[in-house]
Write a structure and sequence with these properties.
Layout (H helix, E strand, L loop, with lengths): L2 H29 L15 H37 L1 E6 L7 H13 L4 E6 L2 H12 L12 E7 L7 H11 L3 E4 L2 H43 L1 H9 L4 H38 L22 H25 L1
Antiparallel strand pairs: 1-3, 1-4, 2-3
């Protein structure tokens, strides 16, 4: 083969190789994902710190909301049980046997309309009621205990409690009627107080979260002041800048809210496990039921909405002063 033909073939091969390399480079460049760079970079000074703060606020808010749900449900259950029952207390007397006192009380109760059942509790049952409060060692055989009669009422039937108490007192000495009204009133007052306290805590957390986001937004705008200025020079509207920044804070709020929700869920599960049998606490602690956990989803959603709105309002106000 002539020498000129060989050089021409070599040059042609090199051109084809260079062209293939350029096509390959273009293809790789198209396939390689490019990170989306917004007004505020992911490594912004408000990133990890704000996520941690939002997670802590969401955790505390979930605890407050969970406590409110638990107290409300427990108070409703206890109220239903107390409103449908009475307790007859029979105190020992020297001039009459306790068995006669109990029999006289049961005779009055059996003839009273609106009473579904009346059952005298044994000494073992009475001591079992006192064990969680006094301990087994304190409720020994030497401790004098009154006899109790558990009375169940017929729903939606009115009973004259004052007249019933008078009849029981006249039947035998030492018989007292307990309608649970004082205990029920104190229970409902405590539940209402706990509910309002939880609402106050939730409002305080929301205000604190909003204030933190406002300061974080101002710090982010100050750190990215040049970028915002350039966007204004090229014709970007305030809405565009606000949308970009609120999207950034929405992502931070969702991340922090999810972290706080997960930590709160684990906390409630731990409390339910430790307190279900009363082994770790003085009394069995009512925890959240499966139907209560969806209520906790309100907290991260509200946290994300708060961070988004606070960031948007702050951005628009700052940009209005810049123009």
């Amino acid at each position: 083969m002539p020498e000129g033909s060989t050089d021409h073939a070599t040059s042609l091969s090199e051109n084809w190789l260079d062209q293939a390399k350029s096509w390959l480079a273009v293809g790789v460049g198209k396939l390689t994902p490019r990170p989306k760079i917004g007004i505020m970079p992911p490594a912004d000074i408000t990133g990890a710190t704000l996520v941690l703060v939002v997670a802590a606020m969401c955790y505390l808010a979930c605890l407050a909301l969970g406590a409110m749900v638990t107290v409300t449900r427990s108070a409703s259950d206890w109220s239903t049980q107390l409103e449908g029952s009475l307790t007859i207390q029979v105190k020992p007397q020297n001039d009459i046997a306790t068995e006669d006192q109990v029999s006289a009380a049961l005779a009055i109760l059996d003839g009273t309309p609106g009473i579904a059942s009346a059952q005298a509790l044994s000494d073992t049952d009475v001591r079992a009621l006192l064990d969680p409060w006094l301990g087994e060692a304190q409720t020994g055989e030497d401790l004098p205990l009154p006899s109790l009669i558990d009375v169940k009422l017929v729903p939606d039937v009115q009973i004259d409690m004052a007249r019933l108490a008078t009849r029981l007192a006249a039947a035998a000495p030492g018989i007292e009627l307990d309608t649970h009204r004082q205990w029920l009133g104190e229970l409902l007052n405590a539940a209402r107080s706990a509910t309002w306290l939880s609402i106050g805590i939730l409002v305080l957390i929301a205000m604190t979260t909003g204030a933190i986001v406002v300061f974080a937004t101002q710090a982010s705008l100050a750190a990215n002041h040049e970028t915002v200025e350039v966007l204004h020079l090229v014709g970007a509207h305030d809405e565009f800048v606000a949308n970009e920044i609120q999207r950034h804070f929405l992502q931070l709020g969702l991340r922090g809210g999810a972290s706080g929700l997960g930590a709160a869920t684990l906390t409630f599960l731990l409390i339910s496990w430790l307190g279900s049998e009363g082994s770790a606490f003085l009394l069995p602690v009512p925890g959240l039921t499966l139907g209560d956990y969806p209520w906790l989803l309100i907290v991260p959603a509200a946290i994300a909405l708060t961070t988004t709105l606070a960031a948007r309002i702050t951005v628009l106000r700052v940009l209005a002063r810049m123009i």
